[in-house]
Structure formats: C-alpha cells, structure tokens
Amino acid sequence: MAGSGHENGAVSIRPADNLAVFEVSKKPKKSKFALGCAMLASLTSMLLGYDIGVMSGAIIFIKKDLKISDGQIEILVGILNLYCLVGSIVAGTIADWIGRRYTILLANVIIFVGSLFMGFSVNYAFLMVGRFIAGIGVGFAIMGAVLYNAEISPASSRGFLTSFPEVCINVGILLGYVSNYAFSKLPTRIGWRLMLGAGATPSIFLVFAVLVMPESPRWLVMQGKLGEAKVVLEKTLDTKEEAQLRLNDIKEAAGIPQDSTGDVVVVQKQTNSNGRFSPSEWDPSPGFTRRRFSL
Fold first, then answer.
1. Which residues is 283 bridged to in the sheet?
2. Using H for helix, E for strand and C for coil, what is the string for 180-214?
3. What's this model's pTM, rounded to 2 decimal places?
4. What angle do CA 125, 128, 195 make, to 5 degrees?
5. Cα separation values, 144 from 66, 163, 200, 259, Å
6. pLDDT, tens digit (0-9, with 9 covering 90-100), for 170-183
7. Cβ distance 118 to 170 under 8 Å?
C-alpha cells in the first residue's frame, strides 16, 4: 500500500511532519509602553466630554445668575462645536510644525486658560470668550490625540488604541454630570463657576504627563531624526522587525531613500521661481543625508 502511494505520486507525511506544518507561532507580546502613551494622549480628549456634560447642568444656574435670554443660552451651548471645528482645522498644521506631542501639550494649556476664563466670568461676554478659548483647545486635543495614537500604535492593536479618545469623551461627559451634582448645592453664583472652572484641574496634570510621552515616529522622520524615530518604534511596536518595516514605510512615504542609514537627516526646503519645492536631491555625505522636498 505504501509503495502504491509513491507510485501514484502521493507524498506521505509522518505525524512529526504534521506538527511542524501546522505549528502555530506565538503571538508577539503587546507593547505596554504604546498602551500607556495612547492613554495619556487620549485623556486630553476627555475634556471635550467634560465641557459637553457640565454645560448641560451649569446652564440652569448661569441663566439664573446672569439673567440671559434663551437665545443666548442656545448660542453659549452650541457654539462649542464651531470653535472645536476651527481648532481641529488649525491643529493639523500646528501638529506638522511643532509635533504631535507638543500639540497635545498646547491643547492642555489652552483648555486650562479657557476653563479659568469661564470659571471667573462676571458677565455673558466674558463667558463667551472663555468658551471660545476652551473650544479651540478641545479641537487641538481631538486632532492631536487621534493623530498621535494612530502613529505610535502597533498594527496588532491600532484599532483598539485609536478608540481611546472616543472612550475618554464619554468618560468626560459622565464626569461633567458628576460635577453638576457635586456643586449644585452651593450658592448659585459660586456653583456654576466651580463646575466650569474644575475643567482646568486635569489640564495641569496632563501638561506634565505629556512631557513623559515620546514624539510620534512619523513626525521625527519628517524632521530628519531617523535615529530617534527608530528608538521610539522599537519601544512602541511589538517586535524589532515590525519597527524596521514601519521605519522603511515612513521613509518611503517621506521620499527618503532606503539606503539612508544616518541617525540625522538634514532637511532643506527650497522653492523654485514658481514658488514650488524643487525636485528631491540628496547629498550622500557621511553621517547624514540632505534632502530637498518636492510636492
């Protein structure tokens, strides 16, 4: 029977071979460092939820204290979405300029200032100024957190980590309701100011927490800091092999040749007579690569 199997062209496989063929490789260990960075970055977006939740209760006391009309209430509550949109649009350019990490830090500073303005408001106009500042900061926070999480997450958990900002928004809404309840028993003129001003407290912690986070590896590559980008990738991704593949992909997207192995890439942006960037040129000097961007 065994001989006939060979004659018919069939290949016999021993049980030991079956184990080798169907052996399942172990999954790589998840990066706890990436998880921690994503959580810290996402906490800033919690302040958007807090602003939404706390205003729903504080507006009752604001109307009573400042003697404002229903129309003014509608504008005060709804204008946050417009300010947040403006902040998100501007934050994209800011994030490319100063980096994702410092964009999140700047968002916390802006939210801190806006919360203080709202907490110390003496009239409707002053309150609207604080609402504007906080709305811009919240827009920065949303854009910065989502962008940062997507760029540091390993492929195995990118969907999970990029969902953190949405989770934090809902947690912030809940905390806003808790704040409404906690300060509702205080005198009217003090209670709503503490509700709005309490949003400044998390910003103080987050400003210092953001400094512990590394910069986005994609932004580092775009700034020519290949050595730093590789270190961050090796810390945040599951394996060193994945880190090298991701680094190669980012270099390709940035137009950096794969044979550029220096830790520092000196980037020079030059425009031609038409105001557009000239074609890419590389100077193969030892230790670094010089690049001119092209669009």
1. 290
2. HHHHCCCCHHHHHHHHHHCCHHHHHHHHHHHCCCC
3. 0.78
4. 115
5. 35, 14, 19, 31
6. 999 999 999 999 99
7. no
